[in-house]
Amino acid sequence: MKKNIYKKIAKDVIDLEIQALKKLK
């Protein structure tokens, strides 16, 4: 179950990074 939590956190972080990159462009 811990792995699933880490995957969700990683996905959220990646989504935030993508949003940040889009704002910079």
- What is the total tally of β strands? 0
What fraction, in percent, of the residue positions are helical? over 70%
For the CA atoms, what is the radius of gyration? 11 Å
Q: List the total number of helices.
A: 1
Globally, the shape reads rod-shaped
Main sheet makeup: none
What distance lies between the first and last C-alpha atoms, to the nearest angstrom? 37 Å
Order of helices and strands: H
Percent range for β-strand residues: under 5%
| Class by SSE composition | mainly alpha
The residue-averaged pLDDT reads 93
Task: Outline the secondary-structure elements.
Blueprint: H1 2-24
Concise account of the structure shown:
This protein has 25 residues and is mostly helical.
Characterization of this structure:
This protein is mostly helical and 25 residues long. 92% of the residues lie in helices and 0% in strands. It contains 1 helix and no strands. The protein has one helix at residues 2-24. The mean pLDDT is 93.
Tags for this model:
25 residues; mainly alpha; rod-shaped
